[in-house]
Amino acid sequence: MVDLGFDNPQDPVGADSFGFDAPDEELFSRTYLRLMEFRPTPDSWQYALETVPGTVEVVMLDLPELMVTFNDEEVARRGHDRLRAAGLRNLARERPESQVIDGVYVLTGSDYTASTALVLPEMIANISGETEFPNGVLVSMPERQILTYHLPRDESLHVALQTMINVTLDEFDEGHKPISRHIYWWYQGEFTKVTSFAEDKTVNVHVDGPFGDVVERVLDIPVGQG
Question: Distance between CA 218 and CA 24 in Å, rounded?
Fold first, then answer.
């Protein structure tokens, strides 16, 4: 499958190319959102959103033999809100495979698997039946075809977080289309980056603010003292 996206920033796709003139129903059925590693967006993709810190969200047209990024002209023509709603609906229909490692769900599948972070509650409900997230969700999207998540509940958070960091860094470094090497905390629709990297590449986990409150609650220890 040919992928015309940020890999070809100097070659934006024209409005008459690759099926953009299809009727709304057909076009929306093939519309997806995709998370990409953050880079300055080309002039033709000024609509792109930074929904997840350090990444960029674009609208894709998924055709049988290629995937094409919508440009500003096509987004304006169909309406960003309508395209985004269609993209979210189609992401929610993704059915990746999953395995559990140390309490961490590792999802693998299509080029949109990582982007299912944008429909995280629906995806988790599909995978494990969970529908309540009082402590939020730890999530990472290291590479297009991989998403990891963990539901903080108890002392298993320690091991799960380390496993997420290891899997995320490995897949980010080795992945064909890396997105982010960070771990995020999702809560009520908002993503907060909870990792940073020192000059020696040491991973720092920031346990403060609302996420710090969750860690203190589930581990039953004062933050900074365990």
Answer: 47
The pair phi, psi for residue 190, each rounded to 5°, is -110, 140
Q: Is 218 exposed, middle or buried (0-12, 13-18, 19+ CB in 10 A)?
A: middle
Q: What is the pLDDT of residue 220?
A: 81
Q: What are the phi and psi torsion angles at 186 (to 5°)?
A: -95, 130
As a residue count, the chain comes to 226
The edge-to-edge listing of strands for the beta sheet with 104-108 is 97-101, 104-108, 146-150, 137-143, 184-187, 190-193
- 60-112 per-position pLDDT tens digit: 999 887 889 999 999 999 999 999 999 999 999 999 999 999 999 999 999 99
pLDDT in tens, 16-32: 456 788 889 999 999 99
Phi/psi for 60 (5° steps) reads -115, 145
What are the Cα distances from residue 125, in Å, to 90, 104, 132? 15, 15, 9
